[in-house]
Design brief:
Blueprint: E1 5-7, H1 20-24, E2 32-34, E3 72-77, E4 88-93, E5 101-105, E6 113-114, E7 117-122, E8 131-138, E9 165-173, E10 179-189, E11 192-194, E12 201-208, H2 213-225, E13 230-234, H3 244-247, E14 248-255, E15 258-265, H4 283-289, E16 295-298, E17 308-309, E18 315-316, H5 320-347, H6 359-381, H7 386-407, E19 410-413, E20 419-424, E21 427-432, H8 433-446, E22 456-458, E23 470-473, H9 487-494, E24 501-504, E25 518-522, E26 530-536, H10 537-553, E27 592-597, E28 608-609, H11 613-623, E29 640-646, H12 651-657, H13 666-685, E30 691-695, H14 704-710, E31 727-729, E32 732-736, E33 742-744, H15 745-758, H16 763-766, H17 771-776, E34 781-787, E35 792-795, E36 801-805, H18 811-818, H19 827-835, E37 852-858, E38 861-863, H20 864-876, E39 879-883, H21 886-889, E40 899-903, H22 935-938
Parallel strand pairs: 2-10, 12-13, 15-16, 23-24, 26-30, 32-39
Antiparallel strand pairs: 1-3, 3-8, 4-7, 4-9, 5-8, 6-7, 9-10, 11-14, 12-40, 14-15, 17-18, 19-20, 20-21, 22-23, 25-26, 27-28, 27-29, 31-32, 33-38, 34-37, 35-36
Helix pairs in contact: 5-6, 5-7, 5-8, 6-7, 10-15, 15-20, 18-19
């Protein structure tokens, strides 16, 4: 007699047919496919962003909606006489999946679990016809935080727990309570697949506010040419947070009846990329906007708690959000020590650095460190010129305020075994020293920016990975032994199994995102269809050094800049490189660095953002020595209103200022140790794929040798707009405008071709550097977004103005910043070349009308960085658009960070197989190649 059978769409043809092939597939993996029911089928994706509430997932509904296409139909067939009177049927779900699987009857009512045996589902009595139709749905994705407890472990630990495949076992319970297996069926949870940039874009999201208008305007224009609508995310719904890429990751799930989209809401509570206390950010936009028909939302990473044993023998259970507030208070202590060291070095070049091992040790030493600084400042003020005296006075006040704020958040108890007492989630918690360090390290890891969307990249199909690879930034922190990326997020990525993970060490970067180093871009002339743009500090340095050498070669023999060695800048000597036969303009003209230092309200964290170290070194050179500074470049320390300083810098000044205290190049060291290593890994992991350098300058480090050894403690960031951090829209590439130095055409061609040869750019690309490309890209016509900026005033303690720096408000200010495009021109000529073509930007008094104005003028010069990038783009066969991203650059990101794209799945004609036909990949099946200093690598594996 035929047995009792459990039917489902085991052959994955989109129908439950009960056919012989379908039944034969019931014990073969992957079995029936289940897409996690994280969408909202009765809601359409809105065409604009509004102030909506979180849409409930279909899984969380009390009953199953009849049209829910993530629900898998099942059927039990009981032949006549197979089930005796008093016998019942039950279903057992294997492994952890019983916590994530829901069964419902034909009316949508949930089928309950057995008391004390949650893996058993108690089925109702069978209908008289012997056919019981019911359904199955899954609540979340493989690797989810749901059903797991986070802990203090800082490493990802691979386990054997199966979260993708599960088995339903149909059992008959006889009248004696003995259960007999009748049938089994195999099921697989659809893994998400990260979408690569070659997939067709159908929407792009970007926040538009007053500060990022140049970026939004340029981006909107380029997206229009790519025929991709830009969805304007209203800044009023995001608390003015603009970092859309970091907040979520777009992915796809393949079900038997088509693709679904999944938004991975990443655990980001940071606001506008600043480390101040969060009131609002993009979280609610993601929660309220995306969940709709066939677009799911995964947000389990937001609901975690971390049990922590306390010194009073209790268990604290701070939430993900509560830990974010706590670590920011702890960070105040290290920030105060850093500020003390910076102020001490400014006051006395022989200042002995304070380097506590941990933030708790820093807490113990904070007051004594401040006292030492005050003594040093007191000695430095004796006989100091007025400008320097005012700066030292401001530094003293600023450090005092930082220390007072830090000491207001923590108290220390005990002596032999000291404890740390602080508020944690509204409760006073006492932790031992070691436990406080453990919790701090884990909390910082959970909230690290390495867990954001900018740190997750994906590729099209490559050899050995038919669905492409995922590239992430990660590393081992030698101080803690833990990973930089949160193990809970690593688990989510690893458990999908269909796309191998490639890890690059990004711990030398402050933000630590892979999109600061690389971008996957279309390459129509290659069989693979794509290449990789990769940041190259060496390429940027080759351009600058060759441009400087060409400039000097064109100078008269007696010219003061025609010297064999590079001299430090002077506050009184001319800056511009406009003499001779090969003039060279400054970089970043019309741009301004940002300086923010605000006093925090009680319970919050102050915001402090300083200009780059390169600028600080330049301003010190101009303000040092005699104390005279005619260049309006300087620094105003301390708490106060937002200040802006002129960013323009000559190539010679930059090449001097980027070196460390011993004269070694920061950028060459960075390229040699970090960028070269990541290029090697990419070339190995992506066989046959071209990895093409593009010029990016990075911030100086104070000591190259120390940085090589301890880079993760004081990481760096891009100094020039990071052109690798680009966006791709349907064959168009949107690259941050580098605002590089400009030279006349023949000089530019010679410099760029020489630089390309030095960094081994293929000859085919070098051959594209010429007048034809320059003409096609209209590169002799300069284009600059200019920001209206008030001067920064340095005042004494009684309010007397000692100096003013920068400022961009008048016609004269604009002429001064662009006059090196017209060497030898008098004021009338500058008026004709610069002001007349842009007259609309000024009012009748000659003042800039708007906060941001787009200036265009023809100077018959070429941006050296743009020419390099344009040649690469021409070889790729893509449409190139330079997009202003200075607003994002000031926050250590670029245009990719400020935008996020929804893309359609790539066609199978492009070589993409069914997801369930692709082989599984085990994460970390071989040793990870981090830097040699990585202790895990040195021990032979993880």
């Amino acid at each position: 007699m035929a047995g009792i059978e459990l039917h489902a769409d085991y052959d994955r043809d989109g129908r439950l047919t009960r056919s012989a092939p379908e039944r034969a597939a019931r014990l073969q993996w992957p079995g029936a496919i289940v897409v996690p029911n994280l969408d909202r089928d009765q809601r359409r994706l809105p065409v604009s962003v509004g102030n909506a509430s979180l849409a409930q997932a279909d899984y969380d509904r009390a009953t199953v909606h009849s049209a829910d296409d993530e629900v898998v139909p099942l059927e039990i067939r009981v032949p006549a006489g197979a089930l005796q009177t008093g016998e019942r049927l039950v279903i057992r779900c294997s492994g952890i999946m019983h916590t994530r699987v829901r069964l419902s009857d034909a009316s949508g009512v949930i089928i309950g679990h057995r008391l004390a045996a949650p893996e058993i589902y108690e089925l109702p009595a069978m209908p008289a016809n012997g056919i019981f139709g019911f359904s199955l749905q899954v609540r979340t994705i493989a690797g989810a935080a749901f059903g797991r407890v986070s802990n203090l472990d800082l490493r990802y630990r691979e386990d054997q727990r199966e979260e993708t495949r599960f088995t339903l076992t149909l059992m008959r319970r006889d009248t004696n309570g003995v259960e007999h297996v009748e049938d089994q069926g195999r099921f697989s949870v659809a893994p998400f697949i990260l979408v690569d940039r070659l997939a067709r874009a159908y929407r792009v999201y970007m926040v538009n506010n007053a500060d990022n208008w140049p970026a939004f305007s340029d981006f909107w224009r380029a997206a229009g040419r790519a025929r991709v609508p830009v969805i304007d995310v209203d800044w009023r719904f995001t608390g003015n947070d603009t970092w859309v890429q970091d907040q979520y990751q777009h992915s796809l799930l393949q079900g038997v009846n088509g693709w679904r989209e999944l938004i991975l809401h990443l655990p980001r509570l940071r606001h506008d990329n600043a480390n101040n206390t969060v009131t609002e950010n993009l979280e609610e936009f993601v929660n309220s906007h995306f969940r709709s028909r066939n677009i799911g939302l995964y947000r389990d990473l937001w609901d975690r708690v971390v049990p922590v044993p306390t010194a009073t023998h209790t268990i604290a259970r701070p939430s993900f959000r509560e830990l974010e507030a706590w670590i920011k208070k702890a960070n105040r202590i290290m920030s105060a020590i850093s500020e003390i060291n910076r102020a001490g070095a400014f006051a006395d070049s022989a200042w002995r650095q304070i380097n506590p091992d941990t933030w708790v040790d820093a807490l113990f030493a904070l007051q004594s460190s401040l006292d030492r600084l005050h003594r040093t400042i007191g000695e430095a003020r004796n006989g100091a010129p007025p400008e320097r005296d005012a700066q030292l006075d401001g530094l003293k006040a600023a450090t005092q305020a930082l220390v007072d704020a830090a000491l207001g958040e923590f108290s220390v108890g005990g002596s032999a075994n000291p404890t740390v007492v602080s508020d944690l989630g509204g409760t006073s918690v006492t932790l031992t020293r070691n436990r406080a360090l453990e919790l701090f390290n884990r909390a910082r890891q959970m909230h690290d920016s390495m867990n954001y969307g900018g740190n997750i990249e994906s590729t099209p199909p490559v050899s050995g990975a038919s669905l492409g690879k995922i590239i992430i930034g990660n590393a081992t922190n030698p101080d803690t032994g833990g990973e930089m990326m949160d193990p809970d997020l690593l688990r989510v990525l690893a458990k999908q199994k269909k796309q191998p993970l490639v890890e690059l060490d990004t711990s030398w970067l402050r933000v630590g995102h892979v999109d600061e180093m690389m971008a996957v871009v279309p390459h129509g002339r290659r069989r693979s269809g794509f290449s990789v743009l990769h940041a190259s500090a060496r390429a940027a340095m080759e351009i600058l050094t060759r441009a400087e050498a060409r400039y000097r070669a064109g100078l008269p023999a007696a010219h003061p800049m025609n010297t064999p060695e590079r001299r430090p800048p002077s506050g009184v000597l001319p800056r511009l490189m406009t003499d001779g036969s090969a003039p060279l303009t400054r970089l970043f003209r019309g741009k301004a660095w940002l300086h923010v230092h605000t006093r925090a309200r009680p319970g919050q964290v102050e915001r402090q953002q300083l200009p780059p170290s390169i600028y600080m070194r330049l301003s010190e050179a101009f303000g040092g020595g005699s104390g005279f500074n005619v260049h309006r470049i300087g620094f105003v320390p301390g708490i106060g209103p937002t200040r802006r300083y002129p960013a323009d810098i000559t190539p010679t000044e930059l090449l001097w200022a980027e070196t460390d205290r011993t004269g070694k190049s920061s950028n060459i060291a960075i390229d040699d140790q970090f960028l070269h290593a990541s290029r090697s890994i990419l070339e190995n992991e992506l066989p046959g794929i071209a990895v093409l350098p593009v010029p990016v300058l990075f911030e100086r480090v104070d000591n190259v040798d120390l940085f090589r050894r301890f880079y993760w403690r004081d990481p760096t960031t891009a100094f020039s707009p990071d052109v690798a951090n680009s966006q791709v829209l349907n064959g168009h590439i949107l690259v941050p405008k580098p605002y590089g130095p400009r030279m006349h055409t023949d000089d530019a061609i010679a410099v760029v071709q020489g630089a390309m040869k030095a960094v081994k750019i293929p000859a085919g690309i070098r051959a594209r550097v010429g007048r034809r490309l320059i003409s096609a890209q209209h590169m002799t016509r300069a284009s600059y977004w200019v920001e209206k900026v008030d001067p920064a005033y340095l005042t004494s303690s009684i309010g007397t103005i000692r100096a003013s720096y920068g400022g961009m408000r008048t016609e004269d200010d604009v002429k001064a910043v662009f006059k090196d495009s017209f060497p030898g021109a008098d004021d009338a000529a500058l008026e004709r070349h610069i002001i007349h073509p842009n007259r609309r930007h000024f009012d009748g008094r000659g003042m800039l009308r708007k906060d941001h104005s787009l200036f265009r003028f023809r100077d018959d010069m070429v941006d050296l960085f743009e020419l390099f990038i344009a040649a690469v783009a021409a070889q790729l066969g893509v449409r190139l658009h330079f997009v202003d991203s200075w607003f994002y650059h000031l926050g250590e990101g670029e245009i990719h960070c400020g935008s996020n794209v929804l893309r359609k799945p790539r066609s199978r004609l492009a070589g993409v197989p069914n997801v369930w036909d692709a082989p599984d990949h085990n994460f970390r099946s071989r040793t990870i190649r981090f830097d040699q200093a990585d202790p895990i690598q040195a021990s032979g594996g993880r």
